[in-house]
Design brief:
By secondary structure, this protein is an alpha/beta fold. It has two domains: about 10-145 and about 320-355, Quinone Oxidoreductase, Chain A, domain 1 (Alpha-Beta Complex), CATH 3.90.180; about 165-300, Rossmann fold (3-Layer(aba) Sandwich), CATH 3.40.50.720. Helices cover about 30% and strands about 25% of the residues. Strands 3, 7, 8, 11, 12, 19 and 20 form a seven-stranded mixed β-sheet that branches. Strands 15-14-13-16-17-18 form a six-stranded parallel β-sheet, sandwiched between helices. InterPro entries: ADH-like_C (IPR013149), ADH-like_N (IPR013154), ADH_Zn_CS (IPR002328), ER (IPR020843), GroES-like_sf (IPR011032), NAD(P)-bd_dom_sf (IPR036291), SDH-like (IPR045306). Keywords: Metal-binding, NAD, Oxidoreductase, Zinc. Homodimer. Belongs to the zinc-containing alcohol dehydrogenase family.
Length: about 350
């Protein structure tokens, strides 16, 4: 049986039990440790990685081998705090950072805890996720929401953190012209982050008219529609550079295909940077030698580190507005969970699908 909360009800969660098979079942919580909090989930978003797990039981080199609770973009309300927790109290609204690092390895000690080999990350096998009525989490990974930031916005801190970490890695600032390849959720949060970091000009590229219109409505200075044909790269690079109207300092590939990375490398100025954001295809065929001869730096990112305070500050001050990204909302029933994942996987008009628990 699932652990019972203060209300006496059974704790339930959305379990991934097989390909295209999600079931709401009891979820027994571990004991509350002295530095932990028990959180009642209120908002949980669906990420592309969640959909990958549902469709294939794997995402990159992470493979689901036994039933796992899904979900990692989340916010909720504190129900109980551990004996040593002084920073939070019951009733606080919090956004949760989903990764628990070891804090002992060289990466953690060096300040790059996102690279920790022992990372325990929500809904990354074999660690259970957060699409549940309640979960237990370390208090130091729960960030109190400002009064004017909603729980849904709190859940959006997770994808927004990817964009903020990418902009930090690429050193985006008020003199940085930015190209973004891909207008999906991660491309859009990277665009919003680049603007918040001061980028004066941002061009967004995609194959889909609707996504480009969303990028434009969210503040892109220009958009360029491209094809999936590799033969079009040179012609499209010319169009992208013309749309930018100045040299491209930093390009973010938020799609992860050979073509998008090739376009980014060719379009970026000598001495500029190209950042591969998110989990692209495992093997890419790209023109690395010409880019190297122009001293274009290629950088990668993996998740994020120490981003929640800045996310919440951007949301609090209105420098970033993530509300338009939330396009679909569902409750927490078996039928709605299935429908929500279908909508998220459909590739239609959905940007961010959110559960309200």
């Amino acid at each position: 049986m699932g652990k019972r909360g203060d209300g006496g009800e059974e704790n339930m969660a959305a379990w991934l039990v097989g390909v295209n098979n999600l079931k709401i079942q009891p979820f027994k919580l571990p004991p509350l440790g002295p530095h932990d909090v028990r959180v009642r989930m209120k908002a949980v978003g669906i990420c592309g990685s969640d959909v990958h797990y549902l469709k294939t039981m794997r995402c990159a080199h992470f493979v689901v081998k036994e039933p796992m609770v899904i979900g990692h973009e989340c916010a909720g309300v504190i129900e109980e705090v551990g004996s040593e927790v002084a920073s939070l109290v019951a009733g606080d609204r919090v956004a949760l950072e989903p990764g628990i690092s070891c804090m002992r390895c060289k990466h953690c000690k060096g300040g790059r805890y996102n690279l920790c080999p022992e990372m325990k990350f929500f809904a990354t096998p074999p660690v259970h996720g957060s699409l549940a009525n309640q979960i237990i989490h370390p208090a130091d990974l729960c960030f109190k929401l400002p009064d004017n930031v909603s729980l849904e916005e709190g859940a959006m801190c997770e994808p927004l953190s990817v964009g903020i970490h990418a902009c930090r890695r690429a050193v985006v600032g008020p003199e940085t012209s930015v190209l973004i390849m891909g207008a999906g959720p991660i491309g859009l949060v990277t665009m919003l982050s680049a603007r918040a970091f001061g980028s004066p000009r941002i061009i967004v590229v995609d194959i889909d008219d609707h996504r480009l219109s969303v990028a434009k409505s969210l503040g892109a200075d220009g958009v360029v529609k491209v094809s999936t044909n590799n033969q079009d790269v040179d012609e499209e690079v010319t169009k992208i550079q013309y749309a930018m109207g100045t040299e491209i300092d930093v390009s973010f590939d938020c799609a992860g295909f050979s073509k998008t990375m090739s376009t980014a490398l060719n379009a970026t100025r000598a001495g500029g940077k190209v950042c591969l954001v998110g989990m692209g295809h495992n093997e890419l065929t790209i023109p690395l030698t010409p880019a190297s001869a122009r001293e274009v730096d290629v950088i990668g990112i993996f998740r994020y580190k120490d981003t929640w305070p800045l996310c919440l500050e951007f949301l609090r001050t209105g420098k970033i507005d993530v509300k338009p990204l939330i396009t679909h909302r569902y409750g927490f029933s078996q039928k709605e969970v299935e429908e929500a994942f279908e909508m998220s996987a459909s590739g239609s008009t959905a940007i961010k699908v959110m559960f309200n628990l």
